[in-house]
Q: What sequence folds into this?
């Protein structure tokens, strides 16, 4: 059976009219939900790009000469404070320690001899049997022996320290991020060995323009967010006292006391600074509709009549209860009512127009 285009259009029109009548009846049974447009004082926020950094990060360097004998940790290994990271060969240091210990013993023996000689000269001088010069010489010899012992003890302390330098330990708990040497490699003082950082304490650095730096200093607070993780609020911020000569921006550093899992140094973040307050005209996000390139709301007057009105919108805001609101920059006034159910409002508008 062939249906003509005219009959098909007539049937579609009939179905549409039935649907409109049904929707109109449903809306008559259920009043159209509205919200009153009102001004609210909301924070004026400046958002900047930020970088997560480790507060404790360092590259350990060799402090003595030697050859790498053993490497106990590698990249991505977690270490505790005091863990041995690597060891050097220590034959030279052991020999130096033995020489220093022998020198201390020799100096102590010479001091004992000088003390006995000085005591004997004092006794003889008291009996007027030696000249004053002999007593002075013994006193000088005694002082020299004491100084030689001090010097030998200092060399012994240095030799022990050099031996300790052959065992490199972690200065704090953290993660190894780079290894600079291999087993068998000979190093000298200053040679980089390992780089690591601690995840126990992180911070964020951001760059803010000179136009907002005064407000940032005054507020002294920032919210840092990484991806969709919970925001980290910091009230321990440092604003550098000078601007970058090229960008004229100021660096702001924020210490993060509580860091959620999944945040690591080097990650990109957003820093949210509250720099003031501003009255804004807000409507519930559910009231805003997008028709092609037009953004609009359905306005409901005191007699319940609906009109479709284009608006210009701004930023989104979240209230304390988690509700989403959108700032209206133009097209609405405070005190007007907007429909919270745009679909029902659209049907009602068509009905009121007689379609």
A:
């Amino acid at each position: 059976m062939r249906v003509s285009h005219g009959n098909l259009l007539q049937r579609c029109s009939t179905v549409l009219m039935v649907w409109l009548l049904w929707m109109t009846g449903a809306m008559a049974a259920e009043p159209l939900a509205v919200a009153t447009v009102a001004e609210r004082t909301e924070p004026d926020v400046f958002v900047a790009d930020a970088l997560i950094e480790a507060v404790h990060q360092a590259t350990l360097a060799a402090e003595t000469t030697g050859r790498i004998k053993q490497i106990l940790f590698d990249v991505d290994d977690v270490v505790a404070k005091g863990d041995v990271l690597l060891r050097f060969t220590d034959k030279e240091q052991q020999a130096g320690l033995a020489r220093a210990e022998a020198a201390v013993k020799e100096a102590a023996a010479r001091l004992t001899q000088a003390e006995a000689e000085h005591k004997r000269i004092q006794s003889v001088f008291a009996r007027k049997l030696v000249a004053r010069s002999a007593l002075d010489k013994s006193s000088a010899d005694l002082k020299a022996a004491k100084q030689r012992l001090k010097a030998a003890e200092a060399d012994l302390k240095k030799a022990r320290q050099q031996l300790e330098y052959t065992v490199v330990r972690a200065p704090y708990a953290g993660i190894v991020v780079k290894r600079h040497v291999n087993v068998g490699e000979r190093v000298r003082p200053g040679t980089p060995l390992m780089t690591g950082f601690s995840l126990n304490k992180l911070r964020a650095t951001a760059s803010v323009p000179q136009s907002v730096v005064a407000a940032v200093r005054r507020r002294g607070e920032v919210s840092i967010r990484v991806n969709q993780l919970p925001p980290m609020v910091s009230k321990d911020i440092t604003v550098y006292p000078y601007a970058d000569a090229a960008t004229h921006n100021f660096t702001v550093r924020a210490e993060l006391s509580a860091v959620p899992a999944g945040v690591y140094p080097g990650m990109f973040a957003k820093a949210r600074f509250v720099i003031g307050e501003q009255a804004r005209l807000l409507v519930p996000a559910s009231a805003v509709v997008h028709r092609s390139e037009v953004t609009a709301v359905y306005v409901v007057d005191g007699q319940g009549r609906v009109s479709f009105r284009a608006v210009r919108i701004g930023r989104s805001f979240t209230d304390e209860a988690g509700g989403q609101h959108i700032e209206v920059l133009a097209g609405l006034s405070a005190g007007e009512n907007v429909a919270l159910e745009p679909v029902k409002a659209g049907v009602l508008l068509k009905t009121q127009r007689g379609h």
Remarks:
- DSSP finds five helices and 22 strands in the chain.
